[in-house]
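Render this sequence as a predicted structure.
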Amino acid sequence: MPDPVIPALSRESLPDDIKVMFDTGMARSGDATIIAVMAHQPDLLRWYFDDFYQGLFYNNNGISRVDVRTKELLRIKLSKQHGCQFCNLSNTVDALAAGITQEQIDAIFELQSPVWNDKDRAVIALAEEMMLQNMAGHFSPELYARLGQYYDDGEIIEIGFVAAILTGVAKWIFTFDMVNREEICPIKKPALVA
């Protein structure tokens, strides 16, 4: 279970719009600690869900140039690699809704699987460069050329920026102990001192 130092606020104390976020988190993952802790700074929480997700990620403000399926593929690869249980449960729902199949989700660590096309493989390869576990991540000319077959330079920048936000948030939520970690999570909880 998450055990944040900053206490989670009770659902009853949350503003109505944040109660909706809390309830969605509970319905999708069985835990909404991240929402209840982030609610200490409700404007930041709203920015993350309204401006980043609804605006940039799902393009409800018209600034995104990258299709949602690409971003969902990037996100499910990062969350599966990072091992955030809350993220994985929620992101699986959204990945399926965006047209990624359960077979593809199950093969997310198998880049050469026949379930992937070359466009998907290029996006997954970028996620592997951006993930927490890859401190030597590098955007090589070869990866640029692979992505460039499907995306223009602005779209490649957008995909990388989305990956950066998601990876940075993953580091933050693990460090602040706001989510359950899966075995693959590279950020381990410190051992209890007796």
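Summary. The radius of gyration is 17 Å. The longest helix spans residues 153-175.
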